[in-house]
Backbone:
């Protein structure tokens, strides 16, 4: 999610957005360690022969698996929950279009889809829609543009979702390699063969790609033997992971603008906004969504379901003269802090890129990291950055 209006400091997502709009490279990149300067796009042969275990079946895990499938590498995916997708979780039975309880927007150009699928002339037969200058938002009671509130290159999926993308284009090739309800407890990389113990089984592999959310590593959910390097452990422990909460409320009529921005207190550690979840959809249903991270999740994450909807409707009634309560139909919510194998949203926008870069570094050419937090430090916290990190991890593994 882009930073909302009212914040004085540019976040790394806004920084990358500006670089993209100007057509220039990311200035941070020359500062990154030389190990991240390898041009993996020109790798034509694989030196690696062996088996890879992928831990986690979110965007990064699925992208890594798909790349390994394309390279003809033996691999297995261990997923702690009973389904794939991770923070791309989507509700399909709330209204007549997908409701993204987690990752929702496309924050970069559509070319990322072709990069992930990695097939020439692939037919990407789904639609994404950008916001326009005619769409307006409210901020502190004043009408502002969507660009003012942080949306100018972002696009919404129409009748589709990030999860649908992976389900349609990647899952058919890798579905039979997925093992569910495999909660990884320990990873021993002392010898040539890596031993991974789960709550149910023991696995061995030559390499591991770990996509477990960094909050789980902060909580010591996995025991490493030997311990991860000190710099890696320091990066894990100092990384700030935002809390995350979303809610979707259906109303009988549309009385709200495209988005409503708020100041959060303190501002830097959090964000909060309401937005039209039905925007661009081929639907007559009216759904307003609440997105909050960090300090913006208060008090929503602490309320019971009945208290939650009462609080939300009261908040909206104050802005829209009681129209929320009189038009309310139903709601659904997602508290990402309570997801047992995730425990939060994503690394906050103001984290040090050096810390994120350290999170993304491999360990002893045995354990490779991929996911929204494990990047090269130039971008993080989104599906596209998770996919890019997975591609980087696979390419590094194959060298």
Residues:
């Amino acid at each position: 999610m882009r930073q909302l209006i009212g914040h004085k400091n540019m976040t790394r997502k806004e920084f990358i957005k500006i670089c993209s709009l100007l057509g220039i490279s990311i200035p941070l990149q020359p500062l990154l360690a030389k190990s991240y300067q390898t041009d993996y796009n020109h790798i034509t042969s694989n030196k690696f022969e062996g088996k890879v275990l992928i831990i986690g079946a979110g965007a990064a895990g699925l992208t890594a698996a798909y790349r390994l499938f394309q390279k003809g590498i033996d691999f297995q995916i261990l997923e702690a929950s009973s389904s794939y997708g991770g923070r791309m979780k989507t509700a399909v039975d709330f209204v007549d279009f997908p409701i993204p309880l987690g990752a929702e927007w496309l924050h970069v150009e559509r070319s990322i889809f072709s990069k992930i699928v990695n097939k020439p002339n692939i037919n990407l037969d789904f639609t994404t829609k950008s916001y326009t200058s005619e769409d307006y938002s409210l901020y502190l009671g004043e009408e502002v543009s969507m660009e003012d509130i942080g949306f100018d290159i972002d696009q919404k999926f129409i009748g589709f979702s990030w999860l649908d993308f992976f389900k349609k284009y990647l899952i058919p090739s890798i579905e039979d390699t997925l093992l569910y309800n495999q909660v990884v407890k320990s990873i021993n990389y002392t010898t040539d063969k890596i031993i991974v113990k789960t709550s149910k089984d023991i696995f061995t592999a030559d390499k591991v790609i770990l996509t477990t959310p960094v909050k789980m590593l902060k909580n010591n959910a996995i025991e490493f033997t030997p311990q991860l390097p000190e710099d890696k452990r320091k990066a894990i422990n100092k990384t700030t992971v935002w809390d995350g909460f979303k809610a979707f409320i259906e109303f009988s009529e549309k009385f709200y603008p495209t988005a409503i921005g708020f100041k959060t207190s303190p501002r830097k550690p959090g964000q909060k906004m309401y937005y039209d979840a039905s925007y661009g959809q081929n639907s007559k249903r009216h759904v307003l969504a609440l997105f909050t991270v960090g300090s913006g999740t208060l008090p929503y994450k602490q309320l019971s379901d009945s208290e939650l909807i009462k609080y939300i409707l009261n908040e909206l009634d104050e802005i829209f003269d009681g129209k929320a309560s009189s038009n309310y139909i139903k709601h659904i919510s997602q508290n990402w802090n309570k997801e047992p194998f995730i425990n939060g949203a994503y690394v906050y926008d103001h984290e040090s890129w050096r810390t994120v870069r350290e999170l993304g570094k491999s360990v002893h050419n045995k354990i490779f990291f991929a996911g929204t937090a494990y990047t090269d430090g130039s971008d993080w916290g989104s599906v596209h950055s998770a996919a890019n990190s997975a591609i980087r991890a696979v390419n590094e593994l194959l060298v």
